[in-house]
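Milestone 3.1: sequence recovery, worked example.
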């Protein structure tokens, strides 16, 4: 595998911009963010030494999250900012110095292109992918156009041998009111649904970025939304959850 050491740039002319702006002229005062939308690998990294089948798994991206984000943005007429590169290149919902921001192993799969990265290699990934994406989100929030910002993610149905029963979950910390109202609106339409509140993950400064850095620091209503990926692996599921979430967000904004 080609080494990055000594390179002045990571992304070449054939590599896409980290940011995918979707519906940028949307008039809703809601901003959608999707940190794990894409599977792109910079050409210099030669696929990180992985098979395409591995990149198609949850380790490579949040399955269905990009499609759900765009479907929800369309229904709300809201702008969305999506990140095109695989979370294995650099995880854009982790601090760039987090131990798992550029993991050598993910779900028991070795990531050859992340082994023994030099400080220069890590810095290039942060400078050319992580920071441009988050500066884009910061700029959008600082425009004061939005009253609500939501981050869309997905998670695996099973961790090890332990099933995860929640088709939908909300992650939060300081702002509990926003996710509680969204969950209440969903539960009203689907009274038998099991909604995870801070399940299957919890927020902390060491392993999360969106909630601490975009939501809390900007003092804007926010939540990270997690949908189990078997729910949104096809268009039927993506449209169903886009409808459900659009209704809940619209009700929240009207309230």
């Amino acid at each position: 595998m080609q080494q990055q050491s000594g390179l002045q740039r990571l992304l070449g002319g054939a590599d896409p911009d980290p940011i995918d702006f979707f519906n940028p002229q949307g008039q809703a005062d809601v901003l959608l963010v999707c940190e794990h939308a894409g599977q792109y690998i910079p050409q210099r990294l030669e696929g990180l030494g992985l098979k395409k089948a591995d990149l198609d798994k949850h380790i490579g991206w949040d399955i269905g999250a990009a499609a759900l984000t765009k479907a929800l943005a369309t229904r709300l007429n809201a702008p969305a900012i999506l990140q095109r590169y695989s979370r294995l290149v650099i995880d854009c919902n982790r601090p760039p110095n987090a131990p798992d921001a550029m993991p050598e192993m993910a779900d028991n799969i070795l990531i050859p292109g992340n082994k023994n990265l030099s400080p220069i290699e890590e810095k290039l990934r942060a400078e050319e992918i992580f920071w441009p994406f988050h500066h884009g989100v910061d700029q959008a929030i600082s425009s004061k156009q939005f009253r609500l910002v939501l981050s869309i993610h997905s998670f695996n149905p099973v961790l090890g041998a332990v099933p995860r029963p929640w088709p939908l979950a909300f992650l939060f910390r300081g702002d509990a009111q926003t996710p509680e109202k969204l969950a209440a609106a969903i539960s009203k339409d689907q009274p038998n649904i099991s909604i995870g509140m801070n399940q299957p993950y919890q927020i902390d400064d060491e392993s999360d970025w969106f909630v601490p850095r975009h939501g809390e620091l900007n003092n804007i209503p926010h939540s990270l939304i997690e949908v189990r990926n078997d729910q949104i692996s096809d268009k039927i599921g993506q449209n169903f959850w886009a409808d459900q979430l659009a209704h809940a967000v619209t009700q929240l904004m009207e309230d």
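The chain has one domain: 19-254. Helices lie at 52-55, 65-76, 119-142, 177-189, 210-216, 235-254.
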